[in-house]
Structure formats: structure tokens, C-alpha cells
Automatic annotation (TrEMBL):
Protein name according to UniProt: Glutamine--tRNA ligase
Domain Glutamyl/glutaminyl-tRNA synthetase class Ib anti-codon binding, first and last residues per copy: 341-441
Glutamyl/glutaminyl-tRNA synthetase class Ib catalytic domain sequence ranges: 27-338
Amino-acid positions noted as binding L-glutamine in the UniProt annotation, renumbered to this chain: 67, 211
Transmembrane annotation, as ranges: none
Any single Gene Ontology cellular-component annotation: cytosol
Protein EC: 6.1.1.18
UniProt record, GO biological process: glutaminyl-tRNA aminoacylation; glutamyl-tRNA aminoacylation
Family the entry assigns: Belongs to the class-I aminoacyl-tRNA synthetase family.
Domain tRNA synthetases class I (E and Q) anti-codon binding, first and last residues per copy: 460-534
Length: 560
């Protein structure tokens, strides 16, 4: 990487410094190490962009490693979803690896630590151990089992492996320093008994390594040069290095752990535990609910890989945790969709418009541009007829001079079609308008080349021909939480802030070209916003998810 090309963030500065100090560029290797215990969220997307982006910048390989050390929470479904998300974002990994690939090596190293007097089997209960470990301001005390002989520890650890003991009866701990100011260094657990089937190793093991023991050693086995993780792992770095010290070969690359700030997104949560709770308790329809901060939810909602990567690049890499306004993500989505999404016409709150002087039974197929951002303009045909749907708020029976949509006695242009003039209304017994009557200028059709077609009116509205209209279910999404930072108050259950109005479903009427739209297709409904075809949509029952509005119009939500 040329340092002249861009200013370097502190992560890149660390790498550049290591290269200056003698690390060979062909020794660079990065990794993205998710735990397969849930779906990935927007915070993971930033980490994916960081690690794979470094791989691209430095022409270095990047591993996709699953830290699968807890079989009670991990599933193949999550592995598959993670692989899909990384691929969808546009990245390729060098090796697909698993912590479970190294279970035997980790066990062998644990045996060596026992033999070296640096690990022991503890038989305390978890409650006893919590008391024995002390507090941040008070040193811990030694476990009564800390001085077991090497022979006894080897025997107990082997019997743990053979399944002789119940869960919680014994654990293996590293023997470090019970007086350390870092609580994680006070004889941390290395292995626990879990009699659960593993998604890859089945029932081969009933003891499983703790994350802190497996993670750094996995980095070392894969010869990862830089292990980047979020700030909550900063206190773990000392333990990461201690474990490496016990097994390191000085002729091989020693991984370096460094930390960056989490990206917390406003009006949502980015904790897999909390996201899982939302799913399991039925507050959302699944991990890919479009209101979720998961990558799969964002994909279903219509967000694009480019938008998510632009968002990650925009917020950059920080050293302090911060709360990113979700409006910035929506801006990135809007900016990308503006370039790629075809423009179509849809009416979501319809009122019927009848053009009284248009010939009965006549229809025309008019040219409509697909996207004005295209380098070479393309067009589609849209049907026009005597009866149209327009948006209810595009008509006002009596309006002031600043109202540029349809009103009685004034003209407005129908997008891609004719200029019309409001003439009258029909109301029901409650005074609600059921029909608007208008006349049209037959010589004013857009693009017809006549002088009349070129005359200007101040307003343009969209429409859909009634006999050709296609009905669809429109899923309108608001933010999932009413509070800007639902994680901010630890004293209150985050679920108390769930927005009861985060989803509303309405009927919409679309131009017929959308009958051929397929799952995932994205469109701009002109003058309304961006929408995406839902995965459950069929030709018989079209479903569109609202992705984002044409501009940032979210009302500021007050916290409870």
C-alpha cells in the first residue's frame, strides 16, 4: 500500500510500523473470526470490511474462521448464513477454517501446560470460584485444588475427556496470578465439560476449550499476523499473549492482537444475544426480519453490499466506542439505490381520478424512462387510460398558491403523460372524496414533440392506470426501537423500547411492469421511496418492503 494514496487509520499504521520493523509482506495474513451462534449484524459487516479490505489493500490472504467452541449455542444454519453474508458483501476468503479443526492440538498443548505446572484441574463450584477470584480492588485467593500434583491433574483431565464426570464437576484452569490487577489473569478457565453434540465433531468431545484459550492459539496455528477485534477484548490481550508465550516457536509469526471500537447503531441493538432474544420471543419474524440490524435483514429490506461497504468506509476505524446515527446508513443506501434502482410508478394511498374527456375504452402505452442516472437512457412502456389512481395527498379541493399538485381549476402534469385540470369531485355520505374528475389536454403528452407538450406547469404527479393496476402488499418499516440508544440504560430492559409501530402493512397499486419483478429486485417508487421485492413475494401475491425514503424524513423519536 502506498501511504501517499490516503491517510492511514491507526490499524493501518500498526501494520505499516510492523513492516518497517522487519515483518515481510508475504507474512501478512488476516482473519474474520465469527462465532456461529447467530446471524451477523452491521457491526460484523464493518469488521468484515476492515479485515477483507486489509487483505485487498495489502494483497494478503484472509481466513474465514469459525470460533466454534460452544456446541450448546452453535448451529450449521449460522455457519451457512455467515458464509452467505460474507460472499454477498463481495469478499472471498483464502481458507475456511474452524477452531474445532484444532481441538486435538489445543488438548495436546493443555496437557503440556499441566506437565509444566501451568494448568490444573479445579473442582470448585462456579459460586465458590466467583468468591475465590476476588474483586477488581481485592486480590483473589488460591483455589484449594491449585497445588494438585501433575499426575493427579493429568489423570483428572483425561477422565474429563473420557466423559466420567458431570458438567460443572471439574474444569481446567491456567495457573497464572491470583493477585493480578487484571481479573482475567486470575487463573482463567481453559476447558469445561459440555455433554452436547458439536455441529462438526459430533460427540467426539465432551470437553471444550474456552474462547480465550482457543482464539489466540488458532491465530497462531493459521499464522495470522494481525488479530483485530473490538474494544471489549482489550483486557483479554494480556491473556492472549500469555497463552501464546507458552507454546510459541520464535521462528514462526507471532499474532498481534489489537482492538478497535464497536460500531453501535442508533435505534437498534447489535448484540447477538439480544438479537437472538428478539427472534426467540417473537418480537420479530426471524433473523432476517427487515427491521433487524442483521446483514440478512438489511439484504431482505433492500440494502446493497455497496451501501454497507460505503457506510463502513465513511464511519472509519475508531479507538472509542460511539453511537452512529442510523440516518448515515440510510443515506449510504439511498445514495447507491439512486444510481441503480429503476424508477416505476406506484400509488400507496389511492383515490380514483377520472379524465372525463378521455375517450371511453381507449388505452395508450407511453414511454417512461427507467433511470435518469443511466449513461444510456432506457425506457419501458406504461399503460394510460380514462381511470387512474393517484395519491390521495396529491389532491386538495381548495388550495393556496403554494400548492403545486392537483386542485380544482388548476393544471398539473401526469408523469410521462398529459397535463390535466381539476374539474370536480364525488363524495360519499361522510364527505370523503371517492372520485376526482379532471379534463386533459390531448396535445400535451410528454415527449410528443408538439408545442403544447412543451408548455410548463409547476406540478407533476405520478399515477397508475386502474384497469392495469397490480395490487401488492406494502410493508412499511419504522425504526425497531423508540429510544435512540436502547442499550444505553443498563437498568432498563431494552425490550421496553420496542416500537409498537415499527411495521405497518398497506395495499398499494403498481404499474404492470412489476408483475415480472423477482425476489430482491429494487425499485424507486417515484416521489415515494425505494422498495424491494420480498423473498415471500409471488406473482399471485406481490410483497414489497420499503427500503428507505427519498430523503431523511424520520421524525425524532422521543425516549420513554
Amino acid at each position: 500500500m502506498s501511504t501517499k494514496e490516503k491517510s492511514l487509520n491507526f490499524i493501518e499504521q500498526i501494520i505499516e510500523e510492523d513492516l518497517k520493523n522487519g515483518l515481510s509482506t508475504n507474512k501478512l495474513r488476516f482473519r474474520f473470526p465469527p462465532e456461529p451462534n447467530g446471524y451477523l449484524h452491521i457491526g460484523h459487516a464493518s469488521s468484515i470490511c476492515l479485515n477483507f479490505g486489509l487483505g485487498i489493500d495489502y494483497k494478503a490472504p484472509v481466513n474465514l474462521r469459525f470460533d466454534d467452541t460452544n456446541p450448546t449455542k452453535e448451529e450449521q444454519e449460522f455457519v451457512d448464513a455467515i458464509k452467505h453474508d460474507v460472499t454477498w458483501l463481495g469478499y472471498e476468503w483464502d481458507q475456511e477454517v474452524y477452531a474445532s479443526d484444532y481441538f486435538q492440538q489445543l488438548y495436546d498443548w493443555a496437557i503440556q501446560l499441566i506437565k509444566d505446572g501451568k494448568a490444573y484441574v479445579d473442582s470448585q463450584t462456579s459460586e465458590e470460584m466467583a468468591i475465590q477470584k476476588g474483586t477488581p480492588t481485592q486480590a483473589g485467593v488460591d483455589s484449594p485444588f491449585r497445588n494438585r500434583t501433575v499426575e493427579e491433574n493429568l489423570d483428572l483431565f483425561e477422565r474429563m475427556k473420557q466423559g466420567e464426570f458431570s458438567e460443572g464437576e471439574h474444569i481446567l484452569r491456567a495457573k497464572i496470578d491470583m493477585a493480578s490487577t487484571n481479573m482475567l489473569m486470575r487463573d482463567p478457565i481453559m476447558y469445561r465439560i459440555l455433554k452436547a453434540s458439536h455441529h462438526r465433531t459430533g460427540n467426539d468431545w465432551c470437553i471444550y476449550p474456552m474462547y480465550d484459550w482457543a482464539h489466540g492459539e488458532s491465530d497462531y496455528l493459521e499464522q495470522i499476523s494481525h488479530s483485530f477485534c473490538t474494544l471489549e477484548f482489550l483486557p483479554h490481550r494480556e491473556l492472549y499473549d500469555w497463552f501464546l508465550d507458552q507454546i510459541i516457536d520464535p521462528t514462526l509469526v507471532r499474532p498481534k492482537q489489537r482492538e478497535f471500537a464497536r460500531r453501535n447503531l442508533s435505534h437498534t441493538v447489535v448484540s447477538k444475544r439480544k438479537l437472538a432474544q428478539l427472534v426467540q420471543e417473537g418480537h420479530v419474524t426471524g433473523w432476517d426480519d427487515p427491521r433487524m440490524s442483521t446483514i440478512s435483514g438489511m439484504r431482505r429490506r433492500g440494502y446493497t453490499p455497496t451501501a454497507i461497504k460505503n457506510f463502513a468506509n465513511t464511519i472509519g476505524i475508531a479507538k472509542r466506542d460511539n453511537l452512529i446515527d442510523v440516518s448515515l446508513l440510510e443515506f449510504c443506501v439511498r445514495e447507491d439505490l439512486n444510481k441503480i434502482a429503476p424508477r416505476v410508478m406506484a400509488v400507496l394511498d389511492p383515490v380514483k381520478l377520472i379524465i372525463t374527456n378521455y375517450p371511453e375504452g381507449q388505452e395508450e402505452w407511453l414511454d417512461a424512462e427507467n433511470n435518469p442516472e443511466e449513461e444510456v437512457m432506457t425506457y419501458r412502456k406504461v399503460p394510460f387510460s380514462k381511470e387512474l389512481y393517484i395519491e390521495r395527498d396529491d389532491f386538495m379541493e381548495a388550495a393556496n398558491s403554494k400548492y403545486f399538485r392537483l386542485t380544482l381549476g388548476k393544471e398539473v402534469r401526469l408523469k410521462n403523460a398529459y397535463i390535466i385540470k381539476g374539474e370536480g369531485v364525488v363524495k360519499d355520505e361522510n364527505g370523503n372524496i371517492t372520485e376526482i374528475h379532471a379534463t386533459y389536454d390531448a396535445d400535451s403528452r410528454s415527449g410528443s414533440g408538439s408545442e403544447a407538450s412543451k408548455r410548463k406547469v409547476k406540478g407533476t404527479i405520478h399515477w397508475v392506470s386502474v384497469p392495469h393496476a397490480v395490487e401488492a402488499d406494502i410493508y412499511n418499516y419504522d425504526r425497531l426501537f423508540t429510544h435512540e440508544n436502547p442499550d444505553g440504560n443498563k437498568e432498563i430492559d431494552f425490550k421496553e423500547y420496542i416500537n409498537p409501530d415499527s411495521l405497518s402493512i398497506t395495499k398499494g397499486y403498481l404499474e404492470p411492469s412489476l408483475t415480472t419483478a423477482e425476489s430482491g429486485d429494487k425499485f424507486q417508487f417515484q416521489r415515494i421511496g425505494y422498495f424491494c421485492v420480498d423473498k415471500n413475494s409471488t406473482k399471485e401475491n406481490l410483497i414489497f418492503n420499503k427500503t428507505v425514503g427519498l430523503r431523511d424524513t424520520w421524525a425524532k423519536l422521543d425516549s420513554k
